[in-house]
Amino acid sequence: MFRAKFRYYVCTRTSRDQGYIGECYQDVVPEEDDDPPVTVVAPQETEDIDFELGLLTEDSFEDDNTCGQANLIDTDVMPQEHTLYPRRDEDWVKLDVSYGETCIIETLDLSFECDTYIYLYDTDCSTLLSKDNDTGVGDASMITYDFPSAGTYYLKVDSWGVGLGTYKISVSRGCSLLMLYGEDSEKVEMLREFRDKVLSKSPEGQELIKLYYQWSPVIAEMMENDAEFKQEVKELIDGLLGLVGEETE
Prior knowledge:
Layout: E1 8-15, E2 20-28, E3 49-55, E4 71-72, E5 80-84, E6 91-97, E7 102-108, E8 116-121, E9 128-132, E10 142-146, E11 151-159, E12 165-173, H1 176-181, H2 186-197, H3 203-225, H4 227-248
Parallel strand pairs: 4-6
Antiparallel strand pairs: 1-2, 1-3, 5-12, 6-11, 7-10, 7-12, 8-9, 8-11
């Protein structure tokens, strides 16, 4: 039961032959002072149905709907939590980079039916440098970019279609995993899924993610200068991949 004065969303996902068909109903507003139940009715031919009922509110970084309102995001720290709501919402962030830095910009831990799109803009806040819809895990977005000069660059995140919901955004430098396996590696994809589906769901796991973002650039630099150390790190992670795979299945 829910009181009025808030806006809710209902998302359904039904399996029908091949793949899934998803629908979202945003802005479900109960009548004033009523406690109506929310009912989700599946088509008769549907074998199973998943649904999520939740409350969407503006995140703590609002207002951040324009380049001039962009909030600074630090690299190699815990991701920022944002909400794409209401419709046509845009979230702007800015990052300071040094000459020649390579950064990995990604959304993660998306809520049910959230679908992000990232745009990277130059220091003038108008020249588009790169964009991505779903290179990340599931409907998440990811951009890897080599910055040719130092300065403040800008990121815009909006929704693809009507995919509103919550997400996190992170910016990291010198990813040690990419040095070991390459950007398009299935092993890197598996480890990202483990981060999003397992580690991010508990305080202990979130602390491990924080430590990774903190120490990954240092480890990457050490591996670049020490081939023997790089091989030792690879053997250690290879030994953990079997357990990781079991957790993400």
